[in-house]
Amino acid sequence: MRTAAAAGVAVLAVLGAAPTALAVGPGGGVSCGDYICEVEADDPGQTGSGASGSTGNGGSAPQGSGGSGTSSNPWTCTYQLLSPQPPATSLDWEGHTPGDGAVYEQRCHYLDSINSVIRNQWLAGPDIASPRAAGKYLVGMPMWMWVNQSPTTYGPNTASASAGGVTVTATAKVSTIVWAMGDGAVVTCTGPGTPYTAAAGKTDSPTCGHTYNRTSADQAAGRYQVTATSTWTIDWHVTTGGGGQAGQLTETRQTQIQVPLAELQVLN
Q1: Mind listing the pLDDT tens digit for each residue in 164-180?
Q2: Which one of 191, 215, 260, 264 is at 20 to 30 Å from 169 when CA atoms are compared?
Q3: What is the pLDDT of residue 78?
Q4: What per-residue string of b and e applies to 56-79 under the rule 16 or more CB within 10 Å gives b?
Q5: Contact 250, 234 (CB under 8 A)
């Protein structure tokens, strides 16, 4: 059985790639899925009865057997957000809690889909720093929203992969975060947001904020459900062996949090 390199397959662990495939010329291609890009290239002079590839976020690859002769990566994978999401007790959350990222259905099939692998996979969403579920928020007071930044939750995250003489470099990062505030308002922020400091007093956030005009008393559990949806942009280009091809893909991730909004009580 040939190794992944001999089969002309390499995995590029870059967050935010969309579940699609882009050709990079005769005999090869760049296939990008959630959390991965795969470089595919014919492997002249190599023959064998099977090939192995890698899928997912650093996990092991499905294994399959193919015919003799040259071939490119025979596995393709797609991802679909599960709706509804699994219950909180489900092992699909991999130790995380609902709202912390999301669970997707991963479907990987071999060649003509005769052999398939279907599993659920948790993927990270925005790492919300503010608002906080344990915070205390008041109607009419500016709320500052921001997220913690890391390669896996905000970017940038850069990696390269090579196979069959083709090398691809890709960089993924969050381009926008759309905040659905639970009261009907939607706030689009083009950056991670600005952390609040006491010196800011009662001023609005300069980059990403919202002010509620009614309490959350009529909401489920007395809290607004805030949903932060990050859009990842992944720019990739073939640095060697592919004629300089390049492209851009996008993917989204979500995180939810429930926050209470109360009215300021004035005592006479």
Answers
A1: 677 778 888 999 999 99
A2: 191
A3: 63
A4: beeeebbebeeeeebbbbbbbbeb
A5: yes
Pair 77, 107: CB distance under 8 Å: yes
Give the count of beta carbons closer than 10 Å to the beta carbon of residue 111.
Answer: 13
Ordered by start, the domain boundaries in the chain are 9-262
Which residues are 249's β-sheet partners?
234
pTM for this entry:
0.68
DSSP 200: G
Tokens coding 255: 């995180």
pLDDT, tens only, 129-142: 999 999 999 999 99
Q: What are phi and psi of 2, to 5 degrees?
A: -75, 155
Return the half-sphere exposure (C-beta side, CA atoms, 13 A cut-off) of residue 164.
Answer: 30
The tally of CA atoms less than 13 A away on the side-chain side of residue 244 is 0
CA 21 → CA 4, 17, 73, 84, 108, distances in Å? 19, 10, 12, 27, 14
